[in-house]
Amino acid sequence: VYYRSKVLVKKIFTNISLKFLNLGDIKSKGIDPELILLGSISGDIYLATDLANLDEEFVNENLLTKSDEFIDCRTAGDQLAQSQGGIISQSKSQLEWNRKNLYCGIDGGETLGLRGGQSRKCSKCDIELFPRTDPVIITLVSNGDYCLLGQSKGRLSNLNIYSCLAGFVDQGESIEEAVAREIMEESGIKVKDVTYYASQPWPFPWSLMIGCHAKADSEEINFDEHEMHSVKWFHRDEVISALEEKNKNLNVPGNIAIAHHLIKAWANKEV
What we know:
The chain folds into two domains: 2-81, no CATH class; 134-267, Nucleoside Triphosphate Pyrophosphohydrolase (Alpha-Beta Complex). Helices cover 27% and strands 33% of the residues. The protein is built from eight helices and 15 strands. Strands 10, 11, 12, 13, 14 and 15 form a six-stranded mixed β-sheet that branches.
């Protein structure tokens, strides 16, 4: 259950877990929510909904207990078990896609949800729309015992976190081409020997992060000041201490993010 994009969790001391509500209990309060089908486990059907159109006080008084709370999805993802983080990835992406596709992009006709929100159909031209996933490359560039990390303007610079460089894959572009272009655009560094490492769904709003490693083919940084706040080379020892949260001058993403695992694999010489 979401409320204005925040997810419902149950807090027990410092531990949190997703809080699931029974649909019958929700409807007994006079609420008829729009639902997205997520799937079934052991015969139980799981759905998702965002109660954004309801008054916050009404939701809190009628559906929540003292240990329940709506929290930011990124905060929840940092603390939840991996399986529950996956539920957020699926449900938040699908709720956002349905919310942003209420009207047809061809003729402006109203769209109607089908298959439990897995597609939408235009009431005028009958075209059927399906949820989109945007591919994003995220790359740890290395040069011997140094790796390239950056801060984009906005969230990362506000939190003083350095991360791998990333960007959307363009149409007609391979993963390797996207890596080379994005790294050049954001840092001015040429790269070679691009290798795939792992992927991660990222529901902000509906991306698939494609994690790669690459070797630097140049050293002089010339970063895009319109997009990036800072881009620097960091020594392996600095990175290891940052991963251990012992470096006052360098913060890296937590282990919820694929960037953390790209950095860790390089720092530990696993790649």
